[in-house]
Write a structure and sequence with these properties.
Blueprint: H1 7-29, E1 31-35, E2 46-50, H2 57-64, E3 69-74, H3 82-88, E4 92-94, H4 101-112, E5 116-119, H5 136-144, E6 148-154, E7 173-178, H6 193-218
Helix pairs in contact: 1-2, 5-6
Length: about 220
């Protein structure tokens, strides 16, 4: 078996290609301002927890993060030609209506291999304020031991100039603010429901604080 036949290697290479595409598209269509990217560990597993207010939040992070990112993306996005494309650039399909064990295995595999997993902890696009978190982020963080880096994607709140309501106006500035890495667990290694619930509370507090700080920093 060659390297290109090995799923893990192919996925990592695909994510690297996806990063290149993200850089070209995001810097070509918008004006990203990246703050604090040095806070992302240069090596080893890490989870990027991103607020989700625009359809470009995932691609924006793929194009501005210092390392290739594997995002958990809802299965509804994998339609037509987007299916092989998203798979080809190392993105992971997840069925949000059930416990998707394949997606869980794939995501943990990314972290086990020392990669970067991107998660929208709110589950779906909304206000992007981390007000309602799902337990998945806590599970992956506690199970893998990977640190979490909070990320705030801000900008495009203005209606004027929008071609599509879910996108910031073209050529507008979008701020991407990376926060300090932190551990979600309490150090005990417990994976009980109570431990995960407590981790979710800790995560929400850290993410909400980071978002507030990012808004103050950027004036958004």
């Amino acid at each position: 078996m060659t390297d290109t036949d090995t799923p893990g290697v192919a996925t990592r290479r695909g994510a690297a290609v996806g990063r290149g595409i993200g850089i070209g598209l995001m810097y070509g269509l918008w004006k990203p301002r990246v703050l604090g990217s040095w806070r992302v560990p240069a090596t080893g597993p890490v989870i990027l927890a991103v607020n989700h207010a625009h359809n470009i939040d995932g691609p924006m992070l793929m194009g501005t993060a210092p390392r290739p990112v594997h995002f958990l993306i809802k299965k509804e996005a994998f339609v037509g030609p987007l299916d092989p494309f998203l798979r080809g650039i190392g993105q992971l399909k997840v069925d949000r209506s059930t416990t998707d064990r394949t997606a869980i295995t794939d995501a943990l595999g990314v972290l086990r291999d020392g990669g970067v997993l991107g998660i929208f902890p709110e589950g779906s696009r909304g206000e992007g304020d981390f007000a309602s978190l799902r337990a998945g982020l806590a599970y992956f963080a506690v199970r893998s031991g990977a640190p979490i880096v909070p990320v705030a994607v801000l900008g495009g709140a203005e209606r004027k100039g929008r071609l599509i309501s879910a996108l910031p106006p073209l050529r507008s500035r979008v701020d991407v603010v990376f926060g300090d890495a932190f551990e979600a667990g309490d150090g005990s290694g417990r994976r009980t429901r109570k431990a995960l619930d407590e981790a979710t509370v800790r995560i929400q507090e850290r993410l909400t604080a980071h978002l507030a700080g990012a808004r103050r920093l950027t004036g958004r």
